[in-house]
Amino acid sequence: MSELTPLRPVKQRRMSRDEKARDTYKRLLESAARVVGEDGYADASVSKITRLAGVAQGTFYNYFETRQDVLDRLLPYMGRQMLDHIGRSLAHDLTGAEREEARFRAFFDYLNEHPAFYRILYEAEIFAPDAHDEHFRILVDGYKGALGRAVERGEIKGYSDQELEAVIYMLLSARSYLAMRYVHDGKGGTGPLPGHVIDAYVKFVTRGLFAAG
């Protein structure tokens, strides 16, 4: 593992005890993300995580019962962080295909800002399967809400609830494989998503692959 600069609390006003606890919890999770992104789940030790977070190993166990506990919380934490990022990126007046395009772009923006997410996600199926399942429940539930509102606005028609769930998995799969092909360099780094990929995705969701015309 390359040397990573320890995360330190931001010194602003004096924090309350609860604020310090939340700050420490977040730094431990952010440090775990960096360690797993660099070394993988198998080599993510408590000592590496606490050293990077700038806390004693004993402090770790005030927040997590075991090493596996922090690994199980990591992907859902990042998944919610990603959804928050996407939500903040969407203009309130966007609807329909424009809103879906904005969600798509925001996902890849998050991926570029957090390159460790890719490894955390794909190794979780083996090393943190409960976290992997929870992560996808969070994503699917969020997408169900978004597409349900689009149905209410009349932007999506002709799909049953079961069909819309299948569509959600199609869209999530598209993100994963497009990231694998066009974004990740195979060395832990990321790059911008090419414009033609965005264009192809937008055409696919607005026209349908075999639509007339």
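[next item in queue]
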Amino acid sequence: MKRGVVFAFFVTIFLWACGASEPVPDWTIAAFNRLEDFKKAYLEGNEKIGELQFQKAVGEIKKSGDLDILAKAYLTRMAVRTACLEPPGGEGYRKIAEVETRETHRVFHDFLAGKMGERDILLLPERYREAASCIARGDAKGTVSALRRISDPLSRLIAAGVAVKTGSADEETLQLAVATASREGWKKALLAYLERLRDLYEKSGHPDKAEAIARRMALLSP
């Protein structure tokens, strides 16, 4: 998600609560910056730094006591992990949901887990809906076409991660994810999708392609 979009989100939340004449509080800007630092560090493979930045973002949000924004922060971490083909976790979000939950939060949580019904898809952020519908139908070709139409690179990788999780990712989907991560310099995500692409080639009887991917990965590691 672009920095301007996230910043506008935090500002909008605050203006709804306090009115347009009020100054934006420091915690919103600090939380936004920390979340951006978390995403960048984690996607690049600096997990410890990323987690530190995430915890700092959570600390800023907790100053407000706003469980809606706190839930969104935890869902953001789950989404970034999904983009890297890792188990999303979710304990932090689920603890919040036990106290206060919103249907849109539940639906996005289920989407990241690869569980979605046709009605729920309409409650997802618009950029995910077409891909989610194709994934739910097991339409691999439709999925990659929908992913290409997601303009935000991270959102594209998040949806690709869900496609991989549900078995709806074909060679084109993995190649698109590799190209996206490569362009953004997200090494952790890049290696994750290269590994999946290598495995696909090995299982589909293309040892030469699998070996080429393996050599590429070796050159990129550590």
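[queue empty]
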